[in-house]
DNA sequence: TTTAATACATCGTATAACAAAGTATATAAA
DNA sequence: TTTATATACTTTGTTATACGATGTATTAAA
């Protein structure tokens, strides 16, 4: 079991990595919010709650990195699908560069 | 020049990585606060201000990951040297494991 | 004598994850 | 039938932490 310090640290680390992982995921395939939570968990082992993901998606839309489209379902609640924009793609590319640099710094020490 | 989104993202990423880099640096060699700012910049290219590093060091001491010792100088202001504790070392080891896992996740996609 | 570098400290602000609570639909179990 | 569970989106309040701004003090160089 992780101690308080490590749990807290994990949370802070997530603050930086989550926007990157979300843009990365949406760059590969459009998703709706609830689906994204599953995707992050299944493919990356990253656990996020709805109260984290929905405000984040709203923020990324305000920054013009994402757009959304409501899609009605034959049954059940409509889904809000998110798509990465060109702005989103260029920002993601910058983020990838930064991440690669940081990884190199971590590995070279 | 980075846009607002990316500058902000850099800051958030730092929130997670900084405690790791600080512990890592102090694990290699004890430092005083002002020296640590130079070390982080010179060896990792990470720019932090005093209003970031001093509260962080205080926090890591409260968590028992660090201890400090004042060292008087022949001339000038006394220096507060920080040393990593056993608790600090074990937490750093956990952080290293997490970081390695995250790097693997980033690289495998 | 004034500027800059060294060295430590603190206050206020902004950002963002997350718990908690809420709304709504659909299905399976009791 | 009622209840629980899963799906799907939203918002409010709390908490953690980087950082700008500001302050104190010492020393050396311009």
From TrEMBL, chains A, B:
Question: Which Pfam families does this one have?
Answer: PadR
Q: Which InterPro entries match?
A: Metal_resp_DNA-bind_regulator, Tscrpt_reg_PadR_N, WH-like_DNA-bd_sf, WH_DNA-bd_sf
Q: Which SUPFAM superfamilies match?
A: Winged helix' DNA-binding domain
Q: Which residues form the Transcription regulator PadR N-terminal domain?
A: 22-94
Read off the Gene3D superfamilies from this record.
Winged helix-like DNA-binding domain superfamily/Winged helix DNA-binding domain
Q: What is this protein called?
A: Transcriptional regulator
- Classification lineage: Bacteria, Pseudomonadati, Bacteroidota, Cytophagia, Cytophagales
